[in-house]
């Protein structure tokens, strides 16, 4: 197996060091050169990489990815989504269950898991549906999915809210047995009938149906009470409002076992963008106000929000390049997440916050998903799952140059800080020089 010596790399922003990757693990880290180790290897099995100026982070972990396979292979496949993930610095992604057929059986989650292994670019960890067919009526076979080869630990009806409180309570109770977690798409359906965007002055001006903040907050408030009552783990998907941050903050103060994620787009974009009527800005939950963006940023920095998750939601051209009202909600995220977060935190903190980024984009999501091989410290003995970033470089987003099969990025033409140079999965490069290795 080829060994890799990353010379002069900065681990999470620290002083330059040399890092040796060998047999799938980080074999050594030294502040000086690794002459001895180099001599112990024969020349042709060692690849030396000049990593001067590059920052190494543990491989990113996405808690919320839509890979669209099975069912919508015209929008994304496990393979194309895995390429996008590796290029974005990810070594693991959790694949949402709203496929066709829905991932509500051991058979489907095992199929997705196997496709991920075959692609071999990131660890694809399937999420199982909470209810049969995402219909919100009967619990899916949670136990069988947990015991399957895919060892599912996260369950979600994402795209739909588990709105029946009795069903939600039973799901929370059920997954306690194997330390599972219910990831809720918090949307009270009765409050979002006909909704097209955030309910506020822009929706009033445009005459588009509104998705009020309280539709999200009412479900989160209920669910933290249910999770507290049952003593189970709740994860809140794509938190989008200042009020949600406050509910989660207070629940955590009381000791409720709740975790939460925010997407890159909710950290950057606002509802004003809907004025263009360009459906690329249509997403669930919708883009909100400046005040919400500010609260989400603060919540992320303070740790009330544990994780940045992409909610990578590829859609085929015919489902997105149409009238706003008919367009599917969702945006691409995997290849732009790190640059967006780097830029947002530079704005907020005035410097590069690598420790914070490593925690919110790798360590915390790996812990929530129970992925023991990911989100580990970059020290000798850890699995070599890591990514190298050039923080001085900039990228300009070209929707059609992305690895994703779909092109629905809201960042087209934008110049963003930070370029992912390389990604390693268990010691094997999946990306080198910004290009996928297979
Ligand atoms: N985020 C979205 O707007 N869409 C997601 C579903 C979801 O995350 O709710 C999708 O599957 O397209
Ligand atoms: Zn959702
Ligand atoms: Zn989603």
From TrEMBL:
Pfam families: DHOase (PF12890). Keywords: Hydrolase, Metal-binding, Pyrimidine biosynthesis, Zinc. SUPFAM superfamilies: Composite domain of metallo-dependent hydrolases, Metallo-dependent hydrolases. This is Dihydroorotase. Its cofactor is Zn(2+). GO terms for biological process: 'de novo' UMP biosynthetic process; purine nucleobase catabolic process. Its EC number is 3.5.2.3. The keyword Zinc applies. It comes from Allocatelliglobosispora scoriae. Binds 2 Zn(2+) ions per subunit. Catalyzes the reversible cyclization of carbamoyl aspartate to dihydroorotate. Zn(2+) 1 binds at residues 64, 66, 158, 311. Signal peptide: none annotated. GO terms for molecular function: allantoinase activity; dihydroorotase activity; zinc ion binding. Residues 55-242 form the Dihydroorotase catalytic domain. It catalyses: (S)-dihydroorotate + H2O = N-carbamoyl-L-aspartate + H(+). One of its GO terms (cellular component) is cytoplasm. Pathway: Pyrimidine metabolism; UMP biosynthesis via de novo pathway; (S)-dihydroorotate from bicarbonate: step 3/3. Zn(2+) 2 binds at residues 158, 185, 238. The active site is at 311. PANTHER family: ALLANTOINASE. Substrate binds at residues 66-68, 98, 284, 315, 329-330. Belongs to the metallo-dependent hydrolases superfamily. DHOase family. Class I DHOase subfamily.
